[in-house]
């Protein structure tokens, strides 16, 4: 049984990292994707080029596992792209690990993608009718086929034409033997930043990776922008005209590392503000505030500071639990959360506890944590969530494509409170979320995607393979 079943949290698709113009590009990419490990733990890969050929390796598991037998020593080049993956579209097998590598009429092509293409099935269906043969189940392969079929000689022209045909979320790195291209979807649903290191350039899903390798932040890749890096330097083109920004709110709430900045907003500080806002909206009399590690700690500190209730480490995370483990009985399966978390009994015993978490998906993990706190002697357990209720599926790269699995879509607030066994339960409002993150953006929702809370999606959503988007190809 995988930890995803036991550890009831949202999972994001992946992280991407690229380097151009550095003699140690593969090694920098290794440290880069290791810094992005929190974005995907199922597979990891790096592809490098020296101006003439590709050298690459992909493997299943964590970065250290995928590159555990000196594979990195066999990869060299002055440009490289890396990828860590969590599956939301496609299967969990090595063939779908990225970067995806292809040979076509113009040479070699490598792609690393973060996000989800909502009309991939439609395009794939039409391409297969026209004779294309797909080697993976990944929606990323659709982009490669579109590029290969393009009549343009320049890779940037072929990429721009291809990306205009797809809908959804993509932060994308495309590499040839001598060029590195980055692209962001017109709504900017996923983050992607540019940095510099020496005379070279780096690109990353999160800025925390820049700090690890000693790179300096330059700027964000803008929504609908195509960034080309080659021997002539860095320049950009437009994929599309102006489109309202709609960055995924959960990048700030949960996915990104606290030491990352997204669109120049520090994630830790944003989460603290969410906690402060939650304290304004849902105060409660209590003796101690604690957060579910790790992503909820910042919000818990903010809640404690705003209410004056002491913050304590009431829950401790075991960082050495693998992704899978044997559970021979139902009784042991029920103990799964205990392998991930421990309660500090002396902190909660006899106390009224406010437990801060960033979200509730199915409710099973929250129920078990509340039970653990009570078993450790907590007199009361009040649950406060630093995001609104997740009531709608995500089609952009988060594993919540089924509304039936979302507890907030099936139960009232009182029913959820009863299910998790808390004395009280409250969520942050949508307005409080937007205010707490504090983006200075004139676009609707101040530039956030709020679809999982409101059901209002920033792009069209297509589910049947024979719908109108097949005619785009």
UniProtKB/TrEMBL annotation:
It catalyses: 5-phospho-beta-D-ribosylamine + L-glutamate + diphosphate = 5-phospho-alpha-D-ribose 1-diphosphate + L-glutamine + H2O. Its cofactor is Mg(2+); [4Fe-4S] cluster. PROSITE patterns: GATASE_TYPE_2. GO terms for biological process: 'de novo' IMP biosynthetic process; purine nucleobase biosynthetic process. Its EC number is 2.4.2.14. Keywords: 4Fe-4S, Glutamine amidotransferase, Glycosyltransferase, Iron, Iron-sulfur, Magnesium, Metal-binding, Purine biosynthesis, Transferase. Pathway: Purine metabolism; IMP biosynthesis via de novo pathway; N(1)-(5-phospho-D-ribosyl)glycinamide from 5-phospho-alpha-D-ribose 1-diphosphate: step 1/2. Mg(2+) binds at residues 295, 357-358. Residues 14-232 form the Glutamine amidotransferase type-2 domain. [4Fe-4S] cluster binds at residues 248, 394, 449, 452. Pfam families: GATase_6, Pribosyltran. The active site is at 14 (nucleophile). Binds 1 Mg(2+) ion per subunit. Binds 1 [4Fe-4S] cluster per subunit. GO terms for molecular function: 4 iron, 4 sulfur cluster binding; amidophosphoribosyltransferase activity; magnesium ion binding. Catalyzes the formation of phosphoribosylamine from phosphoribosylpyrophosphate (PRPP) and glutamine. In the C-terminal section; belongs to the purine/pyrimidine phosphoribosyltransferase family. This is Amidophosphoribosyltransferase. It comes from Ammoniphilus oxalaticus. The gene is purF.
């Amino acid at each position: 049984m995988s930890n995803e079943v036991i550890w009831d949290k949202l999972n994001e698709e992946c992280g991407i990292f690229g380097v151009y113009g550095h003699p140690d590009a593969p090694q920098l990419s290794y440290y880069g994707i290791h810094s992005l490990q929190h974005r995907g733990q199922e597979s990891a890969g790096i592809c490098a080029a020296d101006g003439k050929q590709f050298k690459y390796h992909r493997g299943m598991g964590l970065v250290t596992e995928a590159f555990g037998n000196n594979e990195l020593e066999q990869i060299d080049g002055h440009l490289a792209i890396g990828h860590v993956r969590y599956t939301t579209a496609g299967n969990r097998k090595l063939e779908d690990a990225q970067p995806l590598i292809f040979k076509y009429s113009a040479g070699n092509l490598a792609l690393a993608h973060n996000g989800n293409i909502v009309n991939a099935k439609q395009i794939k269906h039409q391409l297969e009718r026209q004779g294309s043969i797909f080697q993976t189940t990944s929606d990323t392969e659709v982009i490669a086929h579109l590029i290969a079929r393009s009549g343009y000689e320049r890779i940037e022209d072929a990429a721009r034409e291809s990306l205009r045909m797809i809908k959804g979320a993509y932060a994308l790195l495309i590499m040839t033997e001598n060029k590195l291209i980055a692209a962001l979807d017109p709504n900017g649903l996923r983050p992607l930043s540019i940095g510099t290191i020496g005379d070279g350039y780096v690109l990353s899903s999160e800025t925390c990776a820049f700090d690890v390798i000693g790179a300096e932040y330059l700027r964000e890749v803008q929504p609908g922008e195509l960034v080309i890096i080659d021997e002539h330097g860095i320049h950009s083109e437009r994929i599309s005209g102006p489109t309202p920004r709609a960055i995924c709110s959960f990048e700030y709430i949960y996915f990104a590392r606290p030491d990352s900045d997204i669109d120049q907003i520090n994630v830790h500080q944003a989460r603290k503000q969410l906690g402060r806002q939650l304290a304004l909206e849902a105060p409660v009399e209590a003796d101690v505030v604690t957060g579910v590690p790790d992503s909820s700690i910042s919000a818990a500190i903010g809640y404690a500071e705003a209410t004056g209730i002491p913050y304590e480490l009431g829950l401790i995370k075991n960082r050495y639990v693998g992704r899978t483990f044997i559970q021979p009985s139902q009784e042991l399966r029920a103990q799964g959360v205990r392998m991930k978390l421990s309660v500090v009994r002396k902190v909660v015993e006899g106390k009224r506890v406010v437990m801060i978490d960033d979200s509730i998906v199915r409710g099973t993990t929250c129920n078990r944590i509340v039970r653990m706190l009570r078993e450790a002697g907590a007199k009361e357990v009040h649950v406060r969530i630093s995001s609104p209720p997740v009531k709608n599926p995500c089609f952009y790269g988060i594993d919540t494509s089924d509304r039936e699995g979302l507890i907030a879509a099936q139960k009232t607030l009182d029913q959820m409170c009863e299910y998790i066994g808390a004395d009280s339960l409250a969520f942050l409002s949508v307005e409080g979320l937007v205010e707490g993150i504090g983006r200075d953006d004139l676009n609707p929702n101040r530039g956030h995607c709020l679809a999982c809370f409101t059901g209002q999606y920033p792009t069209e959503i297509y589910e049947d393979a024979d719908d109108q988007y097949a005619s785009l190809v």
